[in-house]
Amino acid sequence: MSVRTLSLKALLFLGLCQVGRRGLASAPDLREPPKKIAIVGAGIGGTAAAYFLRQEFGPGVKIDVYEADTVGGRLATENIEGRDYETGGSIIHPLNLHMKHFVDRLGLSVRADVPSKMAIFDGKELMFEESDWFIVNFLRMLWRYGFNALRMHMWVEGILDKFMRIYQYQQFSYSFSSADRLVHAMGGDEFLALLNKTLEEAMLAHGFSQTFINEIVTPISRVNYGQSVRLHAFAGSVSLAGADSGLWSVDGGNKRVCSGLLYHSKAELIAARVTNIALKTRPSKSGTITNFYEVNYVGDSGPAHSLYDIVVLATPLHQGLSDIAFSGFSPSLPSHFPGRYHQTVSTLVLGRLNVSYLDTKRKPSEFLVSDVFTTDNEKLGISSVSSLDPVHITHGYSRPLAHQTAVWKVFSPEPLTEEQLKTLFISQEHVVEKRWLAYPSYRAPERRPPPFILHHNLYYLSPIEWVASAMEMSALSARNIALLAYHRWHGHTAKVDQEGLHARLRGEL
C-alpha cells in the first residue's frame, strides 16, 4: 500500500475516532474517571496531551496545565517592525496527520506558500544551487550525484510507509509503555536498528556515495538538527523527510496550534514553575491505598500545591531544562535523565546579506537563493542562512531580494560574534538572538530512552524525542500517553504493548 493511500485512510479515521469519547467509555465495568489531571509544560506535547486526555476521560475531569514561560514552548515567534517571524519549529511534513487534524479541528489555516530556492555552501563557494525549473534541478543532481537523490527519496518513503503504521495503532486505541516498543511496532527490528547506527553508516550500507552524503545529506541534517550525519539513522531519516516537497506551516505562527489545543481542551492554564512532585497515599473506603500526586509550584502569588490523580510531564527532565524534584517514591525517581540537549542559536537579522561572502562572482541583485545550507565545516560556524518570511503572508507580498533589506535567520551552534555578523551582513538594522536547547544531541548507538511510565499514574512524554524530535513526534507521544493513561486507569491491558497488528489493521482499513 502506498504512503498516500495509507495517509488518506488514516486521516479519515483521525476524523472519525477523535470526535468525542469512544463508545467504550460508557461501558458499565469502567472505574470512576479521575477527578484531576496535571500536565507540566504547555508546548505542543503538553497542549496536545490536554486535548487527547479530554477526549479519553470526558468533560468531568479537571485538567490543569502548568507553564512557567509562554504557551508554545519551542514554537515561538519574534516581532520585527510590526511583523511576526518564526524563531522555533517552523515546518510541518504533509504526512503529519495529527498536526493536520489540529489545524482543521481548530479552524486554523495553512500559511500561503512563498517559492524558495536552496543552495549548498562549503565555506568557499556554492557547490549546488537549485533552479526554478524541476528538469534543470534533476539534471544537475543526475550529473553530479547520479541517481542518489532519487534513491534517497525512495529510501525515506519506505521508512515513512512503515512509520505511518502508528496512526493505525492509535486509531484502534492501542498504546505503548516505552519508546522502544512504539518504534518496534512501527518498523520491527529494522527501525530499532536505525537507532543503533549512524545515518552515514546506514546510507553507505544502502549504496549511497560518500560525496552525496557529504554534500547533500549533511547540510540537510545540519539545518534540521544542527548535527552531522553521525546522528543516529532514525533521527537522520526524519531530518531527510524534512527536505521533502509540500512542507507547510500554520498561518499566524505554529504556536497558534498550542493555544488552540489548550482552549479546545478546556484546561486551566496555571502560570507557575513546578518545583516538586511528591507521592501521597490515602486509604479508601474499600480498605485499599490510593495514590495521589502532590504538585508543588511557585507562581506570582508564591508557593502552592495541589493534588492530582494523574500527572503528565511534558517537559524534558534533563540538565538545563528542568529542576523538578521528586519525593516519596520508592525506588526514587531521578531529577535528570542521562544525555544532553543540543544547543542551536537562532539569530534573526534585519539587514542586507553580504552576497560576496557566498558568491564572489555574482552581483547582489542577481542572487536569488533564499536558503543556504552548509557542509560540515567547523570553520564556518553556522549551519544555515535563510531569508525569513512573516508568519502571515499578506496579499501581494513578495520576498525581498538579497541586495535589499530583509529578515534573515541564521542557525549556529554558538552565538554569533560581531565579526561573524559583519562577515555575513553588509548592514544590520535589528538583531535578535534566541538560544534553544532544541533537540537531543543524538548519537549511535542511542541509549535506551527513559520510560513513558515513571510511576503508576505519573507519565513522561518527552522520551519520544530521543527517537526523533519534531512537532508531530510530540503529538504522537501525547496521543500515546493519553491512551496509555486511559487504559491503565481502567485496566485495559489488552490495549497496551500489543504488536504485530499492523497487517490485520491494514486489512480492516
Explained architecture:
The chain is an alpha/beta fold and 509 residues long. It has a domain at 3-73 and 254-340 and 444-508: FAD/NAD(P)-binding domain. It has helices spanning 3-17, 44-57, 97-105, 134-145, 148-163, 165-171, 179-194, 199-205, 210-225, 233-241, 255-264, 355-358, 418-424, 471-490, 502-508, and strands spanning 36-40, 62-67, 77-80, 83-86, 118-121, 126-129, 268-283, 289-299, 302-308, 310-313, 325-327, 341-353, 371-374, 384-387, 406-412, 425-440, 453-455, 458-460. The strands form three sheets. Strands 1, 2, 7, 8, 9, 10, 11, 17 and 18 form a nine-stranded mixed β-sheet that branches. Strands 6-5-13-14-15-12-16 form a seven-stranded mixed β-sheet. It has a two-stranded antiparallel sheet with strand order 3-4. Strand 17 and strand 18 form a beta hairpin. Helix 2 runs parallel beside helix 14 and helix 8 (199-205) packs across helix 10 (233-241). The longest helix is centred in the C-terminal third of the chain and has 20 residues, at 471-490. It is globular and about 80 Å long. Mean pLDDT is 90; it is low at 1-28.
